[in-house]
Amino acid sequence: MFLTVMLVSLATLAAASPVQPDAESKHWAVLVAGSAGYFNYRHQADVCHAYQILHTHGIPDERIIVFMMDDIAKSSENPTKGIIINKLNGTDVYHGVPKDYTGREVTPENFLNVITGNKEAMAGIGSGKVLESGPNDHVFINFVDHGAPGFVGFPSKTLSAKELNSALEKMHTKKMYKQLVFYMEACESGSMFEGNLLPKNMDIFATTAANAHESSYACYYDKYRRTFLGDVYSIKWMEDTDRVGTSESLQQQFQTVKEQTKSSHVQEFGDLKFDTEAIQEFLGGASGGHVEQQLKRITSPDAIKDYCADKVSSPNVPLAILYNRMNDAKTVEEQKEARVMLAEELMKRNEIAGVMKRIVDGASNANGALTEEILNGKTSPSNFDCAEAAVDAFSAHCYNVGQVDFAFRQVYALVNMCEHSSFNTTKILSSIAAACQN
């Protein structure tokens, strides 16, 4: 009788007690800002803010790996040299950020080698740090940049959904994590994980700023810095974390961010069975009033009420910046400079769109109806061999989509052709070379 009572008591106690994390479990994180240039200030600001959250919540720098061009803090356009902020009147988020991979080291190849733990490939590059996580560890990856259907950008190249998910599968095969969370900020970011791209049985939970066919949005335009300070989705998940700490669940944060990101449709993918896990399992577990007070200085006090009233779709950010600079100019010379730059940007966009139309015209044998179908359609890629080859050719012969943001916006047309039965890869590549031979 006594033994029975003891067993029942122990069972009750075990059920009532929270499960303790594995003593060997560690937090690892990879943060990536894939863009370059002052007009993309917000991407590095987002990543720097993410670092401050992880660092403040107790993840040591040796297990946080940061990719960013690092051309913003000391840019000649930055009026506060050495300082980056992620909200209006915010405090510096740049201080202390590890410079693991900067400048030309910010490439898709290096990123894939880092997340798959290929230390040999990274020897002599940047800090050389790679994920050295194991089967009991929790991994967080945050990627911020421009996107297109099936692709995200780096400063000089692109990364396809196929390449990314192949790397994630390799991580799973190598048992590099217990659970992995991926937050992605990019236009059409849903296309990186949709359908069967990210299997549901790999213990990976991913959320994206937008669905497969829409833009993500920037906000917090700063008149003094003359640029946007953050992206809506990124600001929402980080300001939520700053505000309430890391005790809420992944699903609670997803629902909060989804509700407050009214400019695009925030998505979730992958393995949803662990979305009840607390975000502290991935963003760090240190808690206490001093932590929340420190982070609240970074975040916006009006985050709940104002979901970024000045939001602008990512493709239109350069136009909005130049328009604001023109209106805020203090001298005639400043106004003229902004007006000239705005006119040049519009002309360049018309030129790029014209080149893409010539490419589609050539590949369709001047079939007007088919050209219009391609230029107005929205398709997600499945023929990645064709799409990757077409994007590489467009970058080589026409415009480097990693460096020319509006050219990246034209990738959708290449994807549409690759998915259409009237086109083949050879015809598409030939048309690209012909359209851009000069």
Low-confidence stretches: 1-21, 288-293, 299-304
Strands across the major sheet, in which order? 2-1-3-7-8-11
Structural class: alpha/beta
Strand content: 5-15%
Q: Mean pLDDT across all residues, rounded?
A: 91
Question: Number of DSSP strands?
Answer: 12
What summary fits the major beta sheet?
Answer: 6 strands, mixed
What order do the helices and strands follow? HEHEHEEEEHEEEEHHEHHEHHHHHHH
- From the alpha carbons, calculate the radius of gyration and give it in angstroms: 23 Å
N- to C-terminal distance:
92 Å
Percent in helix: 40-55%
Counted by DSSP, the helix tally is 15
Globular, elongated, flat, extended or rod-shaped: what is the shape?
globular
Keywords:
13% strand, 41% helix, 15 helices, three-stranded antiparallel β-sheet, six-stranded mixed β-sheet, 438 residues, alpha/beta
Topology:
Layout: H1 2-16, E1 27-33, H2 41-56, E2 64-67, H3 108-115, E3 138-144, E4 147-148, E5 151-153, E6 158-160, H4 161-173, E7 179-185, E8 204-208, E9 217-222, E10 227-231, H5 232-244, H6 250-260, E11 267-270, H7 280-283, H8 289-296, E12 312-313, H9 317-328, H10 332-363, H11 368-376, H12 384-397, H13 405-408, H14 411-419, H15 425-435
Parallel strand pairs: 1-2, 1-3, 3-7, 7-8
Antiparallel strand pairs: 4-5, 5-6, 8-11, 9-10, 9-12
Helix pairs in contact: 2-5, 5-6, 5-8, 9-10, 10-15, 12-14, 12-15
